[in-house]
Amino acid sequence: QPAHSLYAVLKGTASATGAFGTAKLDDDAKAMLFVPGNDDKLTFTVSKGAAVRFCVVDASNVHSVRRLAKESPDVHFPHAKSLVISELLTALDDPEFDFVMARSYSEMPWSEFATWPRPAPEEKPVHQQTKRQRKNFGSWQSEQRWNWRVVSATIPELPPPEVVHAGRERCELRLSSSYERRKHDDRPFGFEVQFEQVTPPDASLGEVAAWGPGDEKGTQRFDAASHRQEKHETVFANHKSYIVDVKDTLPARGYVFRVRVYYGEVEGPWSKPSEEASTPARGAPSKIVGSSVQALGRGLTLTVPRPFDDGGSTIKGLVLRFRHHDSENFPGAWRHVGSFATKDWPLQLDVTNELLTSREDSSHNHSYEFSVAPYNRLGVAPWSGPTAPCATNNEEKAVSYGHGAFDRHTRHHIPTDDELVQIATEEGKKLYEEASHYVRKHLDDLFDEHAHSVHGPLVSIGGSLTASLDVYDSLHNYRRPNARPDYSAQAWLCHWSPRGHKAVAELVAADPLDACSTHKNAAPLRGRVVLVKRGQCPLATKALLAQRAGALGVVIADNGKCTALDQYCVPGADRSRGEAWARLDLQRPWAGVHIPVVLVLADSAAHVLEHFPVGDGMNGTVAHSLFSEEEEAGKGGEL
Predict the structure, then answer these.
(1) How would you classify the pairing of strands 492-493 and 597-600?
(2) Which of 63, 144, 145 is nearest to 99 (CA)?
(3) Cβ distance 533 to 429 under 8 Å?
(4) What is the rounded CA–CA span in Å between residue 92 and residue 59?
(5) Strand 458-462 vs strand 501-509: parallel, antiparallel, or unpaired?
(6) CA triplet 427, 428, 430: central angle to 5 degrees?
(7) How many angstroms separate the CA atoms of 288 and 382, rounded?
(8) How far is the CA of 243 from the CAs of 74, 177, 224, 454, 606, in angstroms?
(9) What span, in angstroms and rounded, lies between the C-alpha atoms of 576 and 249?
(10) First to last CA, the chain
(11) pLDDT tens for each residue of 273-297
């Protein structure tokens, strides 16, 4: 009467009858019969010349039986209850299933021998036992070692680990197992994971990409009770899956993982290796996904979520750019705003400068798109996709602040003391410093020098029909309480300019100065007020070209034909009567202009150029003599 038995027909046919019923076997079907040990009687009827193989299944060969069931899908296990392979494996993986492997045999009823746990004989209390009845301590130790040997032999081989996520210094694995410790047993039970490098790092990536404090191979243990469990849908229903984090891996390498069960003092067999998992190399953070924008006050608020991957190094900053959604009347290229330090996620950035305020009129609806790129010591991430266009709030009176009207953004934020201190080895510090130099150069390439350079005085234009051209020598003078401009000149607002909209920014000269063709100095014009000279083309053309270059406002200096801002200067209007110029013009040429446009006399422009250096951002300052001489009347062909 074996504990459990396995029968196979090598030749001919046979039928087996027992408590399970009747099962037919033949060599053509490659059928096998697994008989649990609680069957008291088994009868075989074989054909003439048949050959039947019999095998006792206990702790000594249970692994072979498991392997046979797993690796032979064409093998069928006939049974009255239709025992299939998955059910057989379930039975063989059950710790309560008795795989006793006795060292010596003794006569006992089969019902007791096949039952786990076996009924213990009644014993008297120790103080009532004779010396002969007390178990020898050495014998007890020997029995315990033998029992653990049986446990070790019956622990199943687990499926290979499944790699859920491969990080630079840690990998998340899913372990699948149906084996559990016996009830009321508090001995240590869990999983031992072995990791080993199989693919070295690519030398072309550089040393810093593969550097780290981890190891190429190692072994770690995980207690089963302290890791989350979930039903594993891809294996048998009785299996549970455990999620574990294997730490101390290295970047830019290929690893395989094996797992085995540990229980008390013994371990089971190692599983087959997992599929190779490639750990990412150290480098730039991942691209940010999911940024959003909303209108808040007179500006826009950008909410930036944390990148999925920091690149293996702490994120130090964020580069920001934006563009107007209307690429026909405004610059279609991205505008680099600057760099911002990152502390808390999600990061919120309030952008108010260089934005135009929307008006109730749908033709003056100003929407903007944003894009960001985080960076660390090792690189700059790719730019994120543009956010959904977001319009600024509608306001009757608003001010657009450009360059010179706000504090400059810093170039970048890469402190030199925090992260390097945490790196233990001198090799790591050296590699990080070399990478930081590369990042600084990359950020310098993205840095808009014109946005952080001074090209002229600070001016304020627009706001009302009678508003003047106010000139300030510096931002400090503009911010003083009850500040008075350093120079103020009469300015005449265009009829098609947005009312109540004022622009405050540096004054920069156009190149060419008549502004009748595409600007050669388009980069310095962005976010500033542009000074152009009257003549050679319609005034609407000058304003539209300046706006497409990114200007926040336009100052048109007369070419000398005007002595006053009246109808002799521009027909059909007079500033002294509160009338805006160009009010007799057709709407179509001015339909795309959404920024303040003012006209000043030549003498006023010459005075500004003489006392306040105004450059074009490319070739130096503009001479005031260009506006001192009166040009021939009628030359210019303004509308």
Answers:
(1) antiparallel
(2) 63
(3) no
(4) 10
(5) antiparallel
(6) 65
(7) 8
(8) 33, 12, 10, 58, 76
(9) 79
(10) 114
(11) 999 999 998 888 999 999 999 998 8
Question: What radius of gyration, in Å, describes the C-alpha atoms of the chain?
Answer: 42
Mapped onto helix, strand or coil, the DSSP state of residue 362 is helix
Q: 441: how many CB neighbours lie within 10 A of its CB?
A: 9
Mapping DSSP to helix (H, G, I), strand (E, B) and coil, where does residue 196 land? strand
3-state secondary structure of 16: strand
Q: Which two tokens stand for residue 114?
A: 């096949």
- Block means of pLDDT (10 residues each) for the chain, 639 residues, are 71 80 74 68 83 78 74 53 55 64 58 58 56 62 77 86 91 90 86 96 82 90 76 52 92 95 91 94 90 89 91 86 88 83 87 85 81 88 93 87 76 57 62 72 71 85 89 90 91 92 94 92 91 94 94 94 91 91 92 93 93 85 70 39
Bond into 305 cis (ω within 30): no
What gap in Å lies between CA 383 and CA 288, rounded to an integer? 8
**Per-residue pLDDT tens over the stretch 155-169:** 888 889 999 999 888
Cα separation, 199 vs 256, in Å, equals: 9
Assign 3-class secondary structure to 317-330: EEEEEEEECCCCCC
In the 8-state DSSP scheme, what is residue 625? Answer: G
